[in-house]
Amino acid sequence: MESEKIGVFRVVLWVIGILVSVFLVAPIIIVMITSLNEMPYMEFPPHRLSLRWYRNFFTSPHWFEPALLSVRVAFATAVSAAFLGTLAAIGIGRGQFRFRRALEMFFVSPLVVPVVVLALGLYLLFSSLHVLGTPLALYLGHTVIATPLVIVIVLAAVRTADPEMELAARSLGAGYMSALWHVTIPIIRPAILSGTAFAFLISFDEVIIAIFLGGPDATTLPKRMWETIRFEIDPTLTAISSLLTCVAVLILVGAEGVRRTFQGRSAR
What is the pTM of this model? Predict the structure, then answer.
C-alpha cells in the first residue's frame, strides 16, 4: 500500500513537472515558429515558411548596428565585471578584517536595489560628467549591475575552496601573488567563467539602464526592440527574440562545458 502511494506521488510529480516545463517553454517555441513567417505581420502558425525576417535583421542597419553595439558593450562589461568581481570575491573570502560582511552586502547591493533607482542615479551622475548618451555610459552602468553577480558566484567558489592548498604553496616558498595565480585562480576558474558568461548576458539583455543612459548614438538592441514595440509591430522582433534565445543557450551551455572540462582536469 505504501509503495502504491509512492508510485502515485511520483506520477503526479512527473505530470506537474511536464506541465510546468510546457508552460515555460511553449511561448519560446511559438515565437521561434512565428519568426519563420513570410507575411508582413505576425502569424501563428505561419502559412508559408521563410527566413525573411532573419535576413532583414542582418541586412538592416536599423537593427544590426544596435546589435553590434550591444555585443561590444556586453563584451567589455563581462571582462571588467569578471576582473573586479573576482578581486572583490577573493578579498572578501580570504580577507580577515572587520566589517567584512558589511562590505560584502555593500558590493552586492545593486542586486536588491530596483534597477530604475540605479538607472536614475546613474543618469544624474553621468549627466554631470557629460558622458550621458555615449557607449561609455552604457559600459559603466552595465558594469555596476553585472559585477555583483560575479561576486556572488565567485565568492561561493572561494569559500568552498580548500585554503590549505594556498597555504601549502606559500610554505614552499611561493609568494602571495604567485600562490594566488597558480593555486587559487585555477581552483575558482570555473566560477569565474560562469560569472563572466552571466555578466555578458545581463549586459546584452539589459534595457532599463540603456533607456536612461543611451541616446541616438548609443542605442542597444534591447532598447531598439522596446522602442519598436511601443510604436509598431515589426515581425523582425520574433527573429531577434529567437536569436537572443539561441545565443543565451549557447553561452550557458558553453560555460557549463568549460566548467566541466576544468573540473575533470583538476580531478585528475
Answer: 0.80
